[in-house]
Amino acid sequence: MLIVRLLVLLTVAAIGASVLIWAFTGNRRYLRIAWRLFQVCLAAALVILGLVFFERLLVLV
User: What are the DSSP E strand ranges found in 1-61?
Assistant: First the structure.
């Protein structure tokens, strides 16, 4: 779980940096990068939560 937390922190930092660069340059490319990073992070979080959920179900059965 420590690795997952570090990856989340790095992703949040990358999204923040992309939004900050977009705010300074006005180049929408960086905003698209931030949006894509957010989508990938959200998908990964849902996969991890799904795996934890099914693991808990297997423990109960």
Answer: none
**Total domains, the chain:** 1
pLDDT digit string, tens, across residues 15-33: 999 999 999 999 999 999 9
**For residue 54, what are its two tokens?**
């099914």
- The residue type of 29 is R
Specify burial of residue 15 (Cβ count, 10 A radius: 0-12, 13-18, 19+).
middle
Q: Which pTM does this prediction carry? A: 0.82
Phi-psi region of 27 (alpha: psi -120 to 50; beta: other; left: phi over 0): beta
**Residue range of the domain that includes 46:** 2-60
d(CA 29, CA 27): 5
